[in-house]
């Protein structure tokens, strides 16, 4: 009896350890996905963001904005879990969470439930398409620097945007994520290699060692650009719900420590480090992407630009995958089943060409990144989560002295200010470029 009990105890203990190992492995996988989605081209724009904020204000501001973005992700996922229990639904997307919040909220808001779902899907599409436009400009700008440096001739960026059209159309036609796996793998390798060489250039820069930069605070008119750029860089809320829903134990996504907290701590630390040291290395002359500040005449610098340009190009199809799926699902009922394939192909080509047109209209990274961050990421990443939590908690869960209402009101005001002033400054910059 004693031996049998020991064997049963050993088997049970081994099963628990194996189960915990599997859970930890899944959690690590979710953490990796979240890191991959957050650590993109935005980190390359951080030195320029610090240039618009100043060393002290920019460094502290990056941490504060990172905390705000993490908090908004937290309240969105937590609200989604609560609404899943209320509606007895296994899991919800971002748009479905907004729909359920309005549907289960105060009676005067319930008729707006369907409009809220449409609004969130529209914001998602606009955000990803805006990000794709930035990708096109970034790749074209990198190629322009490489070619012009080696040829000794000046070729306008428009020619490079046109040259990308065939590749962009092919990437936009990918309709199954499994076909993007090789491209994503190559993009990760290229990006990591490019980051490593970029960090070498930053930390070997003589200006960094002498700490010549003394711009601790920027002027007030530069702050909207700082906020818009940092929001664009850090915000990755569009992929949060799929990652959280894919976890075996979704509650591991929240809490302390958790997948979200660990990921955001790593992301914000890396962004702040890249921003501060990149600005210290290149000062006020830093380009909207740190790679564009690397010397054009040196082979390693050209390799970095080519590698990261290729990585961003390979990620273009993944960036457009979500909006293309949303848009096609919303219009495919208009087509006869015989023309579904043709209709989807034409729709995808049209959206790709739309990103090309916007890139041609604003072929400059600085105002483009600020504009996308100010309009799209501030709404999607800050305003909507705050509104959704407030509505879902309206009946009896706003807390002592309605603290959730006050807190979310501050978040919405901050988001609207970033939207208004960031958009205004960005549009002014675009107008000045075209003069």
From TrEMBL:
Which segments cross the bilayer?
55-77, 118-139, 151-171, 183-203, 223-247, 259-282, 302-324, 345-362, 368-388, 409-427
Q: How does it sit in the membrane?
A: Multi-pass membrane protein
InterPro entries linked to this entry: AA_transpt_TM
Residue ranges annotated for the Amino acid transporter transmembrane domain, each copy included:
30-427
**GO CC field:** vacuolar membrane
Keywords of this entry: Membrane, Transmembrane, Transmembrane helix
Presence of the UniProt keyword Transmembrane helix in the record: yes
Residues spanning the signal sequence: none
Question: Which superkingdom heads the taxonomic lineage of this protein's source?
Answer: Eukaryota
Q: What's the chief localization of this chain?
A: membrane
Where would you find this protein in the cell? Membrane
Name of this protein: Proton-coupled amino acid transporter 4
């Amino acid at each position: 009896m004693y031996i049998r009990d020991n064997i049963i105890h050993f088997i049970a203990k081994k099963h628990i350890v194996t189960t915990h190992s599997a859970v930890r492995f899944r959690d690590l996988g979710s953490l990796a996905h979240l890191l991959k989605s957050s650590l993109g081209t935005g980190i390359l724009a951080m030195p320029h963001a610090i240039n618009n904020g100043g060393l002290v204000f920019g460094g502290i501001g990056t941490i504060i904005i990172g905390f705000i973005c993490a908090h908004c992700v937290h309240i969105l996922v937590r609200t989604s879990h609560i609404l899943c229990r209320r509606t007895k639904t296994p899991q919800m997307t971002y748009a479905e969470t907004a729909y359920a919040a309005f549907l289960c909220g105060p009676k005067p808001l319930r008729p707006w439930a369907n409009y809220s779902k449409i609004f969130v899907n529209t914001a998602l599409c606009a955000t990803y398409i805006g990000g794709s436009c930035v990708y096109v400009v970034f790749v074209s700008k990198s190629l322009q620097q490489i070619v012009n440096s080696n040829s000794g001739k000046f070729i306008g960026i428009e020619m490079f945007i046109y040259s990308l059209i065939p590749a962009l159309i092919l990437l936009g036609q990918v309709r199954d994520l499994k076909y993007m796996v090789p491209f994503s793998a190559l993009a990760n390798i290229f990006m990591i290699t490019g980051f490593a060489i970029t960090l070498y250039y930053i930390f070997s820069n003589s200006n960094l060692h002498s700490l010549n930069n003394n711009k601790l605070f920027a002027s007030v008119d530069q702050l909207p650009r700082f906020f818009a750029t940092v929001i664009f860089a850090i915000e990755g809320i569009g992929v949060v719900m799929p990652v959280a829903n894919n976890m075996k134990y979704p509650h591991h996504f929240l809490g302390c420590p958790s997948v979200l907290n660990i990921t955001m701590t790593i992301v914000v630390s890396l962004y702040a480090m890249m921003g501060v040291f990149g600005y210290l290395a290149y000062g006020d002359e830093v380009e909207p992407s740190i790679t564009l500040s690397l010397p054009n005449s040196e082979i390693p610098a050209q390799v970095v630009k080519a590698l990261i340009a290729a990585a961003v190009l390979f990620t273009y199809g993944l960036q457009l995958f979500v909006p293309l799926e949303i848009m096609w699902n919303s219009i495919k009922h208009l087509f006869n089943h015989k023309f579904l394939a043709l209709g989807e192909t034409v729709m995808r080509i049209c959206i790709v060409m739309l990103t090309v047109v916007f890139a041609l209209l604003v072929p400059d990274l600085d105002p483009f990144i600020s504009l996308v961050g100010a309009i799209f990421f501030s709404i999607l990443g800050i305003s909507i989560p705050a509104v959704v939590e407030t509505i879902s908690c309206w009946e009896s869960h706003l807390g002592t002295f309605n603290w959730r209402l006050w807190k979310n009101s501050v978040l919405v005001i901050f988001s609207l200010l970033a939207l208004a002033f960031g958009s205004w400054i960005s549009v002014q910059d675009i107008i000045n470029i075209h003069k």
